[in-house]
Amino acid sequence: MPTMRALVSLALLAALVVAFVVWQFAAGDEPPAPRDLPRPDQGTTAPAPTAPSERSAAPIAPPAEPSPPPTAATADAPAEPVAPALPTSVVVMARDVRSRQPVAAFRWRVRSGNDTWSGDGADGRAELGLPPDRGGELLVEAADYTPFTRNDLVVPPAGSPPLQLDVFLVPAVPVAGITLHVHDQALQPIQHVRVDAFALGAEPRERGWHLGKSLWARRATANDGAYTLPPLPAGDYGIRVCATDADGNLLPLLPYSRTFTLTGDHGFVEDVPLEPGCVLELQLVDAAGQPYDPTRRGTLTLALSTPGGPPVQRKWRTRSGSIDATAIDVLPGIGGAELAEPIAAGIYVLELRVNGEPRAQQQLALRPGERQQVPVQVP
């Protein structure tokens, strides 16, 4: 029956088609999605870009490259040359003016032209390496002390021993009044002094103020050489200090002189070094060899000056028992006189006048650290 065979064949063919389709789906192949074609009134547009995945949303910075190791040329480059330190040419010894103890820490600076050197000192000592044969200004500073300056510093020549400078620092805020620490060049305290105080007026402060009448004159004793002057009212004063022995006789040390302005709210602490000088005493006799008596022979003028130098007024003193007489450039008593204060050693010329008439001239050679008695005859 051909019809029956045809139906069976057709059914078998359909079964094969269904089996093929089922096998395709089982393999995971999906049929392509239908594409929407544009309508005739729309232009062809490019497809929208695909959104990036979440992992690629933020760019990742590339890893930093390590710095290259130094090359041999860099590692072996020579260091900058360092100038060699100069040998010690100046030694600064800084001490407290009151206790004479070394200052624990201080600073120093030296200026010479456009050059400046500076450094620190400890335990009262600083070694300065400065170029030889240089002059300049030295500044020393320390906490709680007044700065110290020296304008005439001269560095020794090359090969010479170092110059040693003793620097005494005074407190920055001293008590009101005037305190003097008096010593000789060997730093030994002067235990006996005579102090004269002078009230200064409006006239210029020349060196001759000490020749006038003092406000007061006092002798004082201090084993440590520290003298605090009696209180003075506000004003301008001149202070003159001479070293003496226990009996009040002058020692051959040059006097100290300075002017002060006191206001009542501050004071002064001064380092007073006394240098060697000469105490000159004249033994004056007349032509008969007797002590010269100005009341009988006439007023005797004593003019003492350096050769070729200008005349300098000086105060002379004559003591007879308890009587102490002074006069300027005139013999104040009978027989002899001494200068009221020591003078610097050197060559001097003594000129004698009687009632203004020249009588004699004599050259004197005065030595430091001595009391010299010079016999003089008045014709």
Account of the 3D structure:
There is one protein chain. The chain has 3 helices and 22 strands. The chain has helices spanning 2-26, 72-75, 294-297, and strands at 90-96, 105-112, 115-122, 125-128, 135-141, 148-154, 163-169, 177-184, 192-199, 216-221, 226-228, 235-243, 256-262, 267-274, 278-285, 300-305, 315-320, 323-328, 336-339, 346-354, 357-366, 370-377. The model is unreliable at 25-64 and 71-75 (pLDDT under 50).
Q: What would you say about this model in short?
A:
With 379 residues, this protein is mainly β. It has helices spanning 2-26, 72-75, 294-297, and strands spanning 90-96, 105-112, 115-122, 125-128, 135-141, 148-154, 163-169, 177-184, 192-199, 216-221, 226-228, 235-243, 256-262, 267-274, 278-285, 300-305, 315-320, 323-328, 336-339, 346-354, 357-366, 370-377.
